[in-house]
Amino acid sequence: MEKIQTYVQVRVSAEQIEKRLLDCLDMHIPNRTLIAKVIIENLTMTDLGLAQLYNAFSGIKPEVHVKIGDDVLVEYKNLSWRMNKPRMEEAGMIYKKKYVKGVVHDIDLRKTDSIGIQYTYMPDSGDAATDTYFVDPSHVIKTTEEYPEDLGDGF
């Protein structure tokens, strides 16, 4: 089992990041001020875009602790509302009364909920179905076991 990472938050204004971007652009680029402004204005649509640009200034690449094809566990509450938990428990699809087993199907680092988990669930009626749902990396436990015994205190 991998150790859970600790994160810190740094408060930096969009204007400070824009100035840093402007400093990186060659002085001879026509309209460099406008270019920096347009980039920052578009990135401010989400905190993630600005955070990734800020990290890039320090050489920090966006990454997650899993890769496509990894077996993972995700708490039931962080997945789709379509599931019928009692039917899933009856079918043995819920581990420790709260985890659903899945496989990393997709990773999109441009999104806060960046990890696409493919999993099997029981709907209210009918047979088991498969779905893919994107979740925040902090909600994903990478596992190499069928069902790990020690999930730590963080989960």
Structure overview:
With 155 residues, the chain is α+β, with helices and mostly antiparallel strands. It has 2 domains: 14-57, no CATH class; 71-142, no CATH class. The chain has 4 helices and 6 strands. It has helices at residues 14-24, 32-43, 47-57, 85-90; strands spanning 71-75, 94-95, 99-107, 115-121, 129-135, 140-142. A hairpin with a 3-residue loop joins strand 2 and strand 3. Helix 1 crosses helix 2 (32-43) and helix 1 (14-24) packs across helix 3.
Work out the radius of gyration: 20 Å
| Quantity of strands, as a count | 6
Give the SSE order as H and E letters.
HHHEHEEEEE
The amount of helix comes to 25-40%
What global shape is seen? elongated
Straight-line N-to-C gap: 12 Å
Structural class: alpha+beta
Overall pLDDT score? 87
Q: Count of DSSP helices?
A: 4
Q: How many strands, what sense, and barrel or not for the largest sheet? A: 6 strands, antiparallel
Tell me what portion of residues adopts beta-strand conformation.
15-25%
